[in-house]
Amino acid sequence: MKSTADERAAMRDVICNLLRSEASESHVRATMATRSGYDATLWKKLGTLGIIGMLIDPEHGGSGLGPIELELIMEETGSALLCSPLLSSGVLAASLLMSSKNRAVQQRLLPSIADGTKLATVAMTDDRGYWTEAGIGVHAHQVKDRLRLNGVASYVLYGEVSDVFLVVARTSDGLGLYEVTKDDSRFELAPLSMFDQTLRSARLRFADTPARLIEPIDWASVQKSLDVALIARAGEQVGGTRRIFDMTIAYCKTRFQFGRPIGSFQAMKHWAADLLIDVESSISAARYAADRMANQIDQSQEALYLAAFACSDAYTKVSAAAIQMHGGIGFTWEHPAHLYARRARAYAQLFGSPSYYREQYLRQLGA
Amino acid sequence: MKSTADERAAMRDVICNLLRSEASESHVRATMATRSGYDATLWKKLGTLGIIGMLIDPEHGGSGLGPIELELIMEETGSALLCSPLLSSGVLAASLLMSSKNRAVQQRLLPSIADGTKLATVAMTDDRGYWTEAGIGVHAHQVKDRLRLNGVASYVLYGEVSDVFLVVARTSDGLGLYEVTKDDSRFELAPLSMFDQTLRSARLRFADTPARLIEPIDWASVQKSLDVALIARAGEQVGGTRRIFDMTIAYCKTRFQFGRPIGSFQAMKHWAADLLIDVESSISAARYAADRMANQIDQSQEALYLAAFACSDAYTKVSAAAIQMHGGIGFTWEHPAHLYARRARAYAQLFGSPSYYREQYLRQLGA
Amino acid sequence: MMMRDDAEDDTAALRKEVRAWLEANWDGSLPPDQDRWNLSPATKAWLVKVFEAGWAVPTWPADWYGRGMTEQRADLIAEEFHQVGAPGARQDRSNFIVRTIYHHADPGLKRKMIPALLKREKGICLLYSEPSAGSDLAGIRTRADIGGTGYLINGQKVWTSGAAFADYALLLARTDWDATKHAGLTIFLFPMRQAGVEVKPLRQITDENHFNEVFLTNARVEATQILGGLNNGWRVLQAALAYERTALGDQSRAARHSAISDDLIGLAQQYGRLSDNALRQELAGVIALGKLHALNGARARELRDNNEPSPLVSLGKLAMSRVLHEEARIRTSIVGVETLLCGPDHPLADDANFLAFNAYFTSIGGGTDQIQRNIISERILGLPREPDPDRNIPFRQTRSG
Amino acid sequence: MMMRDDAEDDTAALRKEVRAWLEANWDGSLPPDQDRWNLSPATKAWLVKVFEAGWAVPTWPADWYGRGMTEQRADLIAEEFHQVGAPGARQDRSNFIVRTIYHHADPGLKRKMIPALLKREKGICLLYSEPSAGSDLAGIRTRADIGGTGYLINGQKVWTSGAAFADYALLLARTDWDATKHAGLTIFLFPMRQAGVEVKPLRQITDENHFNEVFLTNARVEATQILGGLNNGWRVLQAALAYERTALGDQSRAARHSAISDDLIGLAQQYGRLSDNALRQELAGVIALGKLHALNGARARELRDNNEPSPLVSLGKLAMSRVLHEEARIRTSIVGVETLLCGPDHPLADDANFLAFNAYFTSIGGGTDQIQRNIISERILGLPREPDPDRNIPFRQTRSG
Fold it and tell me: Is A195's CB within 8 Å of D340's CB?
C-alpha cells in the first residue's frame, strides 16, 4: 500500500498528538529511569493505532505500510525521544519476519508483534558490533536431533524485556535464522548500561541453548531488514535533529544577555544558518532514501548509505551545537539538550558508524 | 654561531626595512611578471647583507647562521612575498654543499653562492614531486671514463636562472651528488608555468649529460638539507600568514558597510579570533622546530614535521579566509590577498603535502 | 474551476502545439555564438521568430507580446524548448532585466525597450555595485543630479558584466542625499553609448576578465527613463534582485566550470589515490555535500509545487558555496604537487587551481556567504536583524570606507 | 640597583633557606584528603605551619603574614614546595579569593578572615552567576536591600562549587537598581551558615554534581562585610576574575580528566585502528592541536619573562576548548560502537563519553567560547565592541530572559 500525501499528513498528526500528550519530556525522563525502559500503557496504544505493526501485512494484523510512512512515523518518535522497543520489535524483527518464507512462524508471531502483546528482537552481532555477516558471533549445531546455539550476541535491543529472540547464527553451510524464547533458561542475558538512557540493550550468551530453526537464510535477506532499520534510524535522527534545533532557535529568541536576545548576536545567527543547512539536508536525505526504497528503483542503496551517514553527522553536529548555544543551562542534566546529544551519539554507532557508511556509499558510487 | 635575542631583533629590523623599501607589493608584482622571476639588484643587496650566505660558514664567505636565524629571516621574506632564489640557492643548495665532504667543491662554489654572483639549485625529484628517495628520477652511469646522467628532475626551483645544478642521482650502488652547469648543452630545461607567479621552477631532462661527481651521498644527508629547507618554508609560511592576517584585520577596521566597520560584525570578529589561534600556533610551531634543530635535541624531527603541516594548513586557511573577508575587492587581481593564497597553495605542496607530513609526524610519535 | 481531465487535455494540446511549432521552425541547432554579448545573426533571427510566436513571454498578455498563460503552462513551453535545445522561450522568467522593466517601466518605455531586448537587438547590463557599496548596496554613492530635462550621473560602478557591449544599463543612483539611505535611490534605464561612460576591464583572481569597472562622468539620462518612480529605487531593486535569484537558481553552473568534469572519483582514480582511506572518507563526504544540495533543490521544487512554505530555496546559494569550496579543496588534495603548475600542459592542475579561486565567485558575488547567513537567520529563522546605524539618518551624514 | 651577582647569591640563599625548612618540617607526604572541601587534620596542621613560617603569602608584608618578597623570589618558594609535593605555599597567587579579600577588604575584616582562610580553618565559595546572568554577569538580579545594620539578600545563584561546605562566600548582589547595570553592584563577604541560605546540588550533563544552586531568602549580611566599597562591585569582580584566571592558568586539568590517559595513539592501537589511514590523519591533527596549544603556552611564558606583550595568554582557554572537543571526537571515533555503553565494565567507553560532555565545562564554563572570541577580537585585535543596549540605562529598565 502506498499512502497519499494527505493520508501521510493525517498519520503524522495522529502520532504527533499522541506523543505530545503521552511522551512529553517529563514522561521520557520517567520512562528512561525505569528498568524496562518503556511504558507498557503507551506501548499498547501504539499497538492499537497500528504503529507497532506498521510494516506488517494486514493479513498478519499489521498496517502494511512502507518505508515512506516508516520514515515519517519515526521522525515523530525521534523528535519525542520516545523510549520504546519500536525499532527492535516493530521494525527490525517485524521486517525480518515479513520477508520470511515460513508462513507458520509468521502466523504465529506477527499478530502479537503487531498488537504489541509480544516483544521481539533480533540478535545478530557479537561484541564487536559490526552488523555485517562477519560480525555474527552465534553458531548453530545439530546435537543429536536437537538444535543448539553457542556464542555471543550483543547490542540486542530491548533484550531484557523481549519475549522472542530472532537469532542470526552461522551453520555448517551458511546462515540460519533461529527462534529462542525468553522462557528458555539455557542462555544468559545481561542488560548493558547504555550511555543513552532512552535506549536499552542486552548481551546474550548462548551455551548449548535449544532453538527452533525458522529457516536457512542468506545475508542479503538480513541486510534487507537492516536496511529498513536504517530508514527508521534516519527518521528518528532527523526528527531529533529538527526538534533540538527548533528548541535552540526558540531559546535564542527569548534568552536575553547584554540586553539583547542571544539570537541577535551575529555569531549565533550565522551558526544557526549553517546548522539549518545540515538540518534540511538530513531531512532530504532521509526522505529520499525512504522514497527510493519504497519505489525499489535505482540508487536505493546509494541513497540509503548517504542518509545513514548524513543523518548521523547532522544529528551529532546539531545536538552538540545546541548544548553550546544554550550556555550554562545546556550543561545541566535538567535541560533536554544532552538527552538529544546522547541519542545522537548512540545512533551514530548503532547499526554502523558514519565512516563505515561513507565507505559503503563510495563503493556504491563505483569507487 | 648562535645569536642573542638582541642580535636577532637587529637582524630582523635590517631585513624588514630593506624589504619594506625594495620589495613592496608593486615591486613584487613587477618582479613576478619578469621572465627571470627575481630582481638582480635586490639580490645583490641580499648578498652584501649576508642574507644569501646566511647558512654558509664564514670561511666560505657566508654568515654562518643557524636554523633559528634562518626561520626569522624567512618570516620577513615570506611576509613580503619576496620573489627570489633564496630558498633554492641560499638554503637548499647551500646547506647541501655545507654538509659536503668535498672541500674543493665547497671552496669553488660556496663563496659565489654566498655573495649571490652564482645561483645554485638542487634537482632531486622527478615529475611525481615526492622529495623522498623514491622520488629520485635521475640515474648516473659511467660511460667509458666519463660520467653521464639520464632521466628527469622536475620542480627544480629557479632552474632557468641557475648557474649550477646539484643533482641527486641514483648510481649502481646507491646515490651520488653531481654537479651540472648551465653551460652544458646536453640537457633540456623547460620552465614550468607556476600558479604562484612569485615562484619559478623548471623541468630538466638529462640525456647522457656529462656531470661531475661531487661525492657519493646517502639519503640521510639529502634529507638533512631538505629539513633545513622545511624550516625556511615554515618561516616564509608564518610570515605570509601573519601579514595577510594583519592586512585583513586592518581592512575590517576601515571598511564600512551598513554604517559600521565590517570588523564590528560579530561573525567577522569571531572568525578573526579563531584565525588568530591558527596564526599564533603556526608561529609557535615554526620557531619551536627551528629551536629544536638548532639545539640538535630530542624531538627535532617531530617538531619539524609538526611545523611542516601546521604552518601549511594555517597559511592555507588564513589566506583563504582573507579573500572572503575582503569581499568583492578580495576577488580582484589588484588586491594582494590572492597572491598570498597562491603562495599558500604552492608551499602546501612544495617539498611535501600536509597529509604527508601528518603521517611522518605520527610515525615520529611511534604510531 | 477547471476539472482535472480538462486540465490534462489542455496540457496535452499545448505540448502538441509547441512541438508542432518547433518541428516546423527549429533546425535542430544554431551556429555557436561568440558569447552571450555577441550573438550570431542566425541566433538573432531565431529569437525574432520565438518572439513573434509569443513563446518569449508566454505569461504576459497578448498585447504585451505574450499569450496570457499561467506559470505552470508556460513552464511546459520552456520544457519543450529545452528538450530540443532551442533558446529564447520563457524569458518572462529567465530574462530578469526585461522582467524588471516590464513590471516597473512606463508603458511608453516598455514599448520601446521590451521587443528590442527580447529579440536581443539591444543589450543591457547592470550598474548596481560600487567599490564602497558591496554587501551594503543601499550605501551606493553614484549621484544623479537634476540637469536639463534629465539627470547628470557621476560615480563609479563595479562588477558589471557586458558593460562594453551593452546599449543600456539598469543604473542604481542616489537622487536624494537628505533622505535615509534606502529612501533616496532611483533606478534608471540608462543609455550606455555616450560620452561620460568609460568601461575598464576588471581582472579577477582567476585571471579572467568577466567584469568591468564603469566610470560615469557627467553622463546623461532623461527623467522618462526612471523605473518605478523617483526615489523608489530600493523597492525596484529588491524586485529585480528577486527575479535575478529565480533566474540564476534555474541556471546551472558558469560556463568554464561546466566544462570541467564533476567526476571526483575518476580524478582520484587517475591519480592513483582511490586506495587511500583518508581520501576515500573525504571523497564520500564531499560528493555527499553536492548530492544533498541537489536533494534539497528537488525537495524545494516539490514543496513549491504543493504551495508549501520552505526555507530550502534561500539556503541554496550558501550551500552551493560550501559545495564548491569543498570540492575544490579535495580536488587540490587529489592533484597534489601538480597544483604548483598551471597552463595547458597541466589541465587537471589548471582546473583545480581555477576552481579553488572561482569558488569565491559564489561565496562573495551576489551577496557574500555572510550576507546569506544574515538573510537566512533573519528571514527564515526569525532571529533579530543586525543593527544598521545608518538606516534612519540622512544619507549625507553616514560614514563610509 | 642590585648587581647581577648579588641577585644570584640572594636566589641561592633563598632556595637554601626554603629547602632547609622543608627538610626540617616536611614528612614527604600527607594522608589523602577527601576533597578540597574536607581536608584531613594533618593537612590542616601542615597549612598552619606553612602560614606561620610566612611561606603562604611571601609577597605580602610581614605584618600581613608574609615576607615582603618580589614575585620572582616568591616563585622560587613555590618551585621548592612543588618539587617535594608540599602544598600551601604561594597562596598570594593561587588562592584567588584570599587575594581578592587582601586587596579589597577593610583592615579589620582582613585580620579576621585572612588567617582563617589561609589555614583553611574556614571555607569560602563564590556566589556570582545566576540563571538569568550567565555570560552577562553584570545582569545579575540578586538584591541586597538595606535592613537593620546591614543588608537583606534575596535571589538565586548557580554554578557554585563547595556551597554546602563553605563558611563564607564572595557574593555579588545588586545594591542600586537605578544605576546602570555595572554601577549598582556590590561584593559582600557573605556568611553562608545561616537560615535563608538553601543549597541544592546541580546535576551536570556528565551526571556529576560538582556544582550547586543556592537560594537566598532574606539572608543577612552586615555592611562591614562589603569589599571595595558600596556599588563598586563590578570593579572588585573584575580583579577577582583576573586573579582567578591567573590561578586557573597555573593549574592543570580537572581531577577526573587527569586520571584518563592522554595517549590517543595507545588507545587507537588497543582498538586495532592504527592501520586506518583516515584515522591516522585525524589522529596526527588532533595530537598536533594539543601540542600547538602547549607550544603557545611555552611561548607565552617566554614572552612574559621578557616583558614582551603577547596575545597568547588570552587565546589559551578558547584553544583548550577546541583541543578538548576534538580529542573527545576522535576518542569516540576510536572506541566506536562501544560508546553506546557506559559504566565500570566499559572504562574506555566511559572515558570517551565523559570527555565528550565534559569538554563543555571548558567551552561554556568561566565564559563561553563565544565570550572568549569577543574578548580576543576586541581586546587583542582591537575590533569594535558588541553593542549592549542595557549598558547605559538604569538597571530596573533593562530586559531579561
Answer: yes
Residue D64 amino acid letter: W
* pLDDT of B296: 84
B269/A270 Cβ within 8 A: no
Name the residue with cell 534540511: A280
Q: Does D299 touch chain A (CB under 8 A)?
A: no
Per-residue pLDDT of C274-319, as tens digits, reads 999 999 999 999 999 999 999 998 998 888 777 777 778 778 899 9
Query: Minimal Cα distance from B245: which residue of D?
Result: D381
R_g (Cα) of chain C, nearest Å: 23
The answer to whether C382 contacts A253, with C-beta atoms less than 8 Å apart, is: yes
Q: Chain A residues with CB inside 8 Å of B266's CB? A: 265-267
Average pLDDT of chain B, as a whole number: 96
Distance CA A45, CA A344 (A): 26
Buried b (16+ CB within 10 A) or exposed e, B5-24: eeebeebeeebeebbeeebe
Per DSSP, the residues of D131-200 read TTBSS-GGG---EEEEETTEEEEEEEEEEESSTTT-SEEEEEEE--SSSBTTTSEEEEEEE-SSTTEEEE
Residue A266 contacts residue B266 (beta carbons within 8 Å): yes
Task: Write the CB contacts of A217 (distance below 8 Å, at least 6 apart in sequence).
Answer: A168, A174, A175, A176, A177
Beta bridge partners of D126: D170
Angle between helices B300-326 and B354-364 (to 10 degrees): 150
- Name D118's bridge partners: none
Sign of CA dihedral D23, D28, D29, D30: negative
Query: Which residues touch D359 (CB under 8 Å, ≥6 apart)?
Result: D321, D324, D325, D327, D328
- D 224-283 residues with CB below 8 A of C? 276-278, 280-281
Task: Compute the half-sphere exposure of residue A97: CA atoms within 13 Å on the CB side of its CA.
Answer: 35
Grid coordinates in use for C149? Answer: 530635462
| Mean pLDDT of all residues belonging to chain D | 90
User: Nearest to residue D360, comparing CAs of D349, D368, D372?
Assistant: D368
The stretch C43-70 carries a mean pLDDT of 95
**ipTM attached to this prediction:** 0.93
D149 vs C287: which has the higher pLDDT: C287
Cβ–Cβ contact B116 with D under 8 A: no
Cβ-Cβ contacts under 8 Å, C291 against chain A: 306
Q: Does C217 touch chain D (CB under 8 A)?
A: no
Query: Strand (E) positions, C57-184?
Result: 124-127, 143-147, 150-160, 168-174
**Taking CB atoms and an 8 Å limit, are A265 and D337 in contact across chains?**
no
Contact map slice: C 143-182 vs B, CB within 8 A: 158-159, 181
What residues of chain C lie within 8 A of the CB of A365, using their CB? Answer: 265, 287
Residues paired with C220 in a beta bridge: C152
* pLDDT 10s digits, D321-372: 999 999 999 999 999 999 999 999 999 999 999 999 999 999 998 889 999 9
Cβ within 8 Å, pair C280-D280: no
Rg of chain D (C-alpha set): 23
CB pairs under 8 A between B and D: 106
Alpha carbon of D251: minimum distance to chain B alpha carbons (Å):
21
User: Global pTM?
Assistant: 0.92
Chain C nearest C-alpha distance from B155 (Å): 9
* Interstrand relation of D150-160 and C226-227 (parallel, antiparallel or unpaired): unpaired
Say if residues B140 and B170 touch (Cβ distance below 8 Å): yes
On the question of pLDDT at A87 being above 70, the answer is yes
Report whether B166 contacts B90 (CB < 8 A): no
Note whether A287 contacts C: Cβ–Cβ < 8 A. Answer: yes
